[in-house]
Write a structure and sequence with these properties.
Layout: E1 2-6, H1 10-21, E2 25-29, H2 33-40, H3 51-60, E3 64-67, H4 70-74, E4 79-82, H5 97-109, E5 114-118, H6 126-137, E6 142-146, H7 156-161, E7 166-169, H8 173-183, E8 193-196, H9 198-229, H10 233-241, H11 262-275, H12 281-293, H13 296-305, E9 313-317, H14 332-342, E10 346-350, H15 355-362, E11 367-368, H16 372-375, E12 381-384, H17 396-402, E13 407-410, H18 417-422, E14 426-428
Parallel strand pairs: 1-2, 1-4, 2-3, 4-5, 5-6, 7-8, 9-10, 9-12, 10-11, 12-13, 13-14
Helix pairs in contact: 1-3, 5-6, 9-11, 9-12, 11-12
The chain binds nicotinamide-adenine-dinucleotide.
Length: 443
């Protein structure tokens, strides 16, 4: 099959490359000329484990090409995936300009029947809008399908190759057949392809992301309460997650979720509900609570050192919103940095992959270091904002020698509080602070 993918971001590039890997002829196009020329040379413009090898193999086998010309890419294609960005608009709803612009361009470029698949995360009802726009521009038959994507950055290839489920929104038999054919190679272990109407498919994506965001937020709040009463959230988390109805994933408390999806999708679902006169109190609270959680470490630091941090330096490990990505969108590290700089502190930071993106955002407001150890040279305390594996077992003696005082504020709970205590560190974490912040009897 000849498949065109519009948008060469995390989703479009991974999806297109994986389709090529199963034997299809795939054209991926993007408006960003620089990105396209980078990809044509076999380089990936962002960090995603395992993607580069697949990309190079499929370019060499001539199953995967990149371009900027949508007309050329649509002519002769049987299926076109829309995988462009849907960032947050000023109102908090999803900005659909890219998606609707691409719909128009696809309509203008069609030379025959086409299945158009919307993979971008879009508010309920968008597939209908896309179909209307395309039909206004062409007399060729078009079938619009909703196919939300559930991959995670950092494990995107694995997730795409072995999805838990694929969701397809369509009422059309022919489109259903085409989509089954495309996804069958990825569904060999009995994980289901779930067919439904477009509205339900669009809603499924938001419901999934918002539920995950709410789970994280719930445990953040439980962790904060654990600190207030003197309980240990790790023990609570394991015991709660052992209930088969609950499960263990997405129960790790921390400094709040970030990234290009959860924050904007939570807000967009809230705006969709408002537009339909429905009040989603849990969703509103999730967003509000998460914004507050991003400030938990600055709050702890002020408790420890007072509100004026002039003359103090903090080492910061981790800038990306999570490990195994260089994505800085809505990263909690940015809020932590802002708060500490505002209080007069200096920051020395390191991230294994996100230094380039962080530099573009932060310029010379902080010092970027060559290694995690270098950040600690002369720092008053160490802050951990992202749980990269390589931060989990540092040389603690070396840390103690480098830091001006042995204080660690761990926003990801990567160390054992007892061990840290034995090693002589003043260790503050999330929900496991051994009565440090608790008030007896809630007084
Ligand atoms: N990143 C994720 O983990 C993830 C997971 C699931 C779903 N999604 C959703 O998938 C969509 C894409 O996300 P992403 O992370 O890949 O975005 P991204 O920002 O990484 O990439 C989007 C790409 O679309 C291109 N683009 C924008 N307008 C275009 C146009 N008119 N024509 C051609 N190309 C255009 C941009 O240049 C960019 O390269 C979003 O709706 C997002 O919410 C993302």
């Amino acid at each position: 099959m000849h498949i065109t993918v519009v948008g060469a971001g995390y989703v479009g590039l991974v999806a297109g490359t994986c389709f090529a890997e199963t034997g299809h002829d795939v054209s991926i196009i993007d408006v960003d000329k620089h990105k396209v020329s980078t990809l044509q040379e076999g380089e990936i413009p962002f960090y995603e484990p395992g993607l580069k090898d697949l990309l190079i193999r499929n370019i060499r086998q001539k199953r995967l090409v990149f371009g900027t010309d949508i007309r050329q890419a649509i002519a002769g294609a049987q299926v076109a995936f829309i995988a462009v960005g849907t960032p947050q608009a000023e109102s908090g709803s999803a900005d659909l300009r890219n998606v609707l612009e691409v719909a128009g361009a696809i309509g203008d470029a069609m030379t025959g029947a086409l299945v158009v698949v919307n993979k971008s995360t879009v508010p309920v009802g968008t597939a209908r809008k896309v179909e209307q726009i395309i039909r206004q521009r062409t007399s060729h038959p078009v079938r619009v399908v909703s196919n939300p994507e559930f991959l995670k950055e950092g494990a995107a290839v694995e997730d795409f190759m072995r999805p838990d489920r694929v969701v397809i929104g369509t009422d059309d038999e022919e489109a259903r057949h085409v989509m089954t054919d495309i996804y069958a190679p990825f569904m060999r272990t009995n994980n289901p392809i779930l067919f439904m109407d477009c509205l339900s498919a669009e809603m499924t994506k938001y419901a999934s992301n918002c539920l995950l965001a709410a789970r994280i937020t719930f445990m953040n709040e439980i962790a904060n309460l654990c600190d207030a009463v003197g309980a240990d959230v790790d023990l609570v988390r394991v015991a709660v997650g052992s209930d088969k109805r609950i499960g263990h994933s997405f129960l790790f408390p921390g400094v709040g979720y970030g990234g290009s999806c959860f924050p904007k999708d939570v807000r967009a679902l809230d705006r969709t509900a408002e537009a339909h006169g429905v009040h989603l109190s849990l969703i509103k609270a999730t967003d509000e609570s998460n914004e507050s959680q991003k400030r938990i470490l600055p709050r702890r630091i002020f408790q420890e050192f007072g509100p004026d941090l002039s003359g103090m330096t903090f080492a910061l490990w981790g800038l990306a919103f999570k490990p195994r990505t260089d994505d800085m969108r809505e990263a909690p590290s940015l809020v932590i940095i802002d708060e500490l700089l505002r209080a007069g502190a200096a920051i020395r930071a390191f991230d294994p992959e996100a230094m380039g993106n962080a530099r573009r955002i932060l310029g010379n407001r902080i010092t970027f270091c060559e290694s995690n150890y270098q950040t600690c040279e002369g720092a008053d305390a160490l802050i951990i904002a992202t749980e990269w594996n390589e931060f989990r077992r540092p040389d603690f003696d070396r840390l103690k020698r480098l830091l001006r005082r042995p204080a660690i504020f761990d926003g990801r709970n990567i160390f054992d509080p007892n061990r840290m205590h034995e090693l002589g560190f003043d260790y503050v974490c999330i929900g496991r602070n051994r009565n440090r912040f608790s008030r007896p009897d809630g007084q």
